[in-house]
């Protein structure tokens, strides 16, 4: 996992290009290390998650292939969570 994260950080420009293509506003990944093992907690905010997934499936960016390979090789399962609340302060995130 550490190597995967380091590679994404190193290729930040490619990652940002794919996020723009997908309409992703924010993508965060957290590592949760428990007695049951290591778990990735993945948070993504997009204009449309369905559209982001569709664009990602047809992406020609090499970084997306790298990311898909990582998921295929390491993810055992996936659970979608129901968002309850979200707060933001747009003026702070995008000062004029």
Task: Describe the fold and architecture.
- It is a single chain.
- With 96 residues, this protein is α+β, with helices and mostly antiparallel strands.
- The protein has helices at 2-10, 12-22, 49-57, 62-74, 90-93; strands at 24-34, 37-46.
- The chain contains 5 helices and 2 strands; from the N terminus they run ααββααα.
- Strands 1-2 form a two-stranded antiparallel ribbon.
- It is globular.
- The model has no long low-confidence stretch (mean pLDDT 88).
Tags for this entry?
96 residues, alpha+beta, two-stranded antiparallel sheet, 5 helices, globular
- Count of helical regions: 5
What structural class do helix, strand and pairing data support? alpha+beta
Bulk shape: globular
Overall radius of gyration? 15 Å
Low-confidence stretches: none
Q: Please provide the count of β strands.
A: 2
Query: Strand order across the biggest sheet?
Result: 1-2
* Average pLDDT, all residues: 88
Span of the ends, CA to CA: 37 Å
Largest sheet: 2 strands, antiparallel
Element order: H for helix, E for strand? HHEEHHH
- Fraction of residues in β-strands: 15-25%
Helicity range of the residues? Answer: 40-55%
In short:
The chain starts with a helix and ends with a helix. The protein is α+β, with helices and mostly antiparallel strands and 96 residues long.
Would you spell out the secondary-structure blueprint of this structure?
Blueprint: H1 2-10, H2 12-22, E1 24-34, E2 37-46, H3 49-57, H4 62-74, H5 90-93
Antiparallel strand pairs: 1-2
